[in-house]
Amino acid sequence: MDDEIKKQHILIIEDDEHINNIIYGVLQQEDFICTQAYSGSEGALNIKHQDYDLIILDLMLPGLSGEAFMYDLRTDLKKETPVIVLSAKEKLDHKLSLFKLGADDYVTKPFDVEELIARVHVHIKRISKSKSPSTYKHKNLMLDSDTMSITIHGVELNFTRQEFKIVELLMKNPTRVFTRQDLFELAWDTLYMGEDKTITVHISNIRYKIRQHDEGDYIDTVWGVGFRLSK
C-alpha cells in the first residue's frame, strides 16, 4: 500500500541555523523528508497546514517559546505527533515539566548527532507499528475495517457480521490458507465443535454476493485444507 512506503516527514524547529542544518542534513541522509523552521511561530504555522510524523523542538526560540508551542500542539490543536525536545537545561524538574506538557523524549545540548538519530528511529518505529491500515484492496474489492464496510465497483455489499469477518481475515492475510476451524473460531470467536457446513455456506454466500457485481474469482478453495484469497 502507498501508506506503507511513504517516507516519514519530520519538522525541525531550531533557531540556530547551523544546528538546524546539521539535523536536516543527517535526517535527509536517513531518507526522511524534513521541513525546517527557525522560530516557534514558524513551527506553529507549519503544523497548522501540514501533518508530520515527528517534531524535533528547541526550547529557546524567538517569538513562541518551545514550551508554548508544546502547549498549543497538545491542547489547542490536539495533535499527538511525537516530539523530541532539544535543550541545554538539564535539571530533572524541568524535564519532568516538559513530559507533563506532552514531550515524548529529551536530548540535552550539546548532543551527539548519532544519539539523536537513534532516538528518531525509535519513535518512528513506534508510531509506524501503531499505524496499522484500516482499508484493504483486492482486485475490485475494497474493505474498510473502521466502518465495517465492503464495496465492489463502488457498490456496498450487504454482508452479515460473520461474512464481513471472513472476508476481512482473508484480505488482511492474502497469502495464508485458512482452515474451516481457523475461520470459524476467528469469525465467531468461539471454539470449533467439529466438521459442519457453516463455513462452506458462508463462503458460498460471499461468492454469490460478489458475483452480482463482478464475475472474477475472489476466494479460492484449497481442497482438503480450507480457503484463501484468490491470486
Automatic annotation (TrEMBL):
Signal peptide: none
Protein name stated in the entry: XRE family transcriptional regulator
Superkingdom, taxonomy of origin: Bacteria
Primary localisation category: cytoplasm
Species of provenance: Alkalihalobacillus trypoxylicola
Record-annotated OmpR/PhoB-type domain positions: 133-231
Annotated ranges, domain Response regulatory: 9-124
Subcellular localization, as worded in the UniProt entry: Cytoplasm
Any single GO BP term: regulation of DNA-templated transcription
Residue ranges: DNA binding: 133-231
Cross-referenced InterPro entries: CheY-like_superfamily, OmpR/PhoB-type_DNA-bd, Sig_transdc_resp-reg_receiver, WalR-like, WH-like_DNA-bd_sf
GO molecular function, one term: phosphorelay response regulator activity
Gene Ontology terms: cellular component: cytosol; protein-DNA complex
Native organism taxonomy: Bacteria, Bacillati, Bacillota, Bacilli, Bacillales
UniProt keyword Phosphoprotein present: yes
4-aspartylphosphate PTM positions: D58
Keyword annotations of the record: DNA-binding, Phosphoprotein, Transcription, Transcription regulation, Two-component regulatory system
